[in-house]
Design brief:
Strand order of the largest sheet: 1-2-3-4
Largest sheet: 4 strands, parallel
Bound molecules: D-galactaro-1,5-lactone
Distance between the termini: 49 Å
Radius of gyration: 18 Å
Shape: globular
Number of strands: 4
Helix content: 25-40%
């Protein structure tokens, strides 16, 4: 742990423990929970019940929420579409749905209690991109940590949405978010991997058609149009 930091292990489903941990906090950075596609029963406790506990803590402490939302909130939009941050939610699975729930809960918390949130709709945050899709969706660790830092420090009010991708030339699917309000712009880029990864796709048409990639192809029972 860095100097001045401490670590406490807790169950996100344990409301009193989460409320206790948040005591005196001015902000909550919520990266806990299930971040990959899993069955509903696996997602519900950490991502729905746990989210409720986090927002309840934010409400009590009057703390800002910085939330690890996901590109999977809009994963079932086709890759040819260009989305604004206020676009229709089209989650591509249980994980994406839980993130959409979190964004709605944040909105309710602002409307009813004046608690601000920043929703970082994270793309593919890995050490390096590994396939063709990630030439669009990749978000470097550096760009993510700078986005979190700006979300904490910026003088903002309300609910803000940020598309979490680095400066990738291939990310043409999204525009218009609240990055200017937090003073963040990505600095890194997946472009250096283009020669190596362009054309490295899966054999699943449903995955390749949609922005959310592989999750869109999981558990569906409708042929890709
Ligand atoms: C996510 O939300 C996951 O956490 C990560 O494992 C990747 O699947 C990523 O999205 C992605 O869309 O590439």
């Amino acid at each position: 742990m860095p100097a001045g930091a401490s670590f406490t292990r807790a169950d996100l489903g344990d409301g009193p423990a989460i409320l206790r941990l948040a005591e005196g906090c001015g902000a909550i950075v919520r990266f806990g929970g299930i971040s990959v596609e899993q069955p509903f029963e696996t997602v519900i406790d950490p991502n729905i019940r746990g989210l409720y506990h986090a927002y309840e803590a934010a409400r009590r402490e009057r703390a800002r929420m910085v939330f690890a939302s996901s590109n999977h909130v809009v994963g079932l939009h086709k890759r040819g579409e260009v989305l604004d941050s206020g676009c229709e939610v089209r989650a591509d699975g249980h994980c994406g749905l839980s993130k959409a729930y979190a964004e709605l809960a944040g909105r309710l918390c602002w409307d009813k209690h004046g608690i601000s949130s920043v929703f970082l709709r994270i793309g593919s945050c890995t050490p390096a991109p590994v396939d063709d899709r990630m030439l669009s969706t990749w978000l470097s660790y550096g760009d993510l940590s700078r986005a979190v830092e700006r979300s904490l420090l910026a003088d903002i009010q309300g609910c803000l949405v940020i598309w979490g991708a680095s400066r990738n030339t291939r990310m043409t699917w999204r525009r218009g978010d609240d990055r200017a309000a937090i003073g963040w712009a990505p600095q890194d880029s997946a472009d250096g991997w283009t020669a190596e990864l362009a054309g490295k796709t899966s054999s699943d048409p449903g995955a390749e058609l949609h922005q959310g990639g592989g999750y869109c192809a999981m558990g569906h029972s409708r042929p890709a149009p």
